[in-house]
Amino acid sequence: MLGINFRKLAAYGLGIWISAIFLDSLRFKFAGHETPRHIFETLRDWSGIGLFYPAGPWIIGLAELTAALLVLGIPLVVMLTTRKPGHAALSQSLGGLLAMGVMSGAIVFHLFTPLGIETPTAWADGQPTEWSPALFIAACITWVAGLMVVVLRGGEALRTLKG
Predict the structure, then answer these.
(1) pTM of the model
(2) How many angstroms separate the CA atoms of 131 and 117, rounded?
């Protein structure tokens, strides 16, 4: 064999997906775009919990940034500098768990609140003009990707923790 570890390769590929989804969403969450505002205001109005907006996009955005760093950024730095694969596996496993946690919340809120599966994706004069299930679908795929990272790297991460 060529010495290629397909489990690690797959985990890094999944890390690219997770990071791309999370990092792309930051420009919307941190800039006050209408779609995250709609999502978090809907959840605030439904639940009566004022924390959903305006803090919600920032809190979730920071969690997504952290997950992206854990699942891809830190493991790449570790592998390029220290060459300790156990530490990279631990970081990726934590990132996968965090991705699953964030996406679990998204999936539950899409399914069991007035938010619904379709959310606005285009706006004109402050009003939604197009609706799509794309965010819900991306949340489901990202949740599965996080789970797969944990499955692929979790054993090595646990061995690292045990020393």
Answers:
(1) 0.94
(2) 10
Which of left, alpha, beta for 58 (phi over 0: left; psi -120 to 50: alpha)? alpha
CA 144 to CA 31: how far, in whole Å? 28
141 token code pair = 């795929």
| Contact partners, residue 105, CB within 8 Å, separation at least 6 | 60
Q: Tally the residues of the chain.
A: 163
**What is residue 54's DSSP assignment?**
T
* Residue carrying the six token digits 């979790």: 154
pLDDT tens-digit map of 46-100: 999 999 999 999 999 999 999 999 999 999 999 899 888 899 999 999 999 999 9
**Of 128, 125, 124, whose CA–CA distance to 116 is shortest?**
128
Q: What is the DSSP letter of 122?
A: E
* Rg for the chain, CA atoms, rounded: 18
Name the token pair of 84.
């300790």
Helices and strands (H and E) in the chain: how many: 6, 2
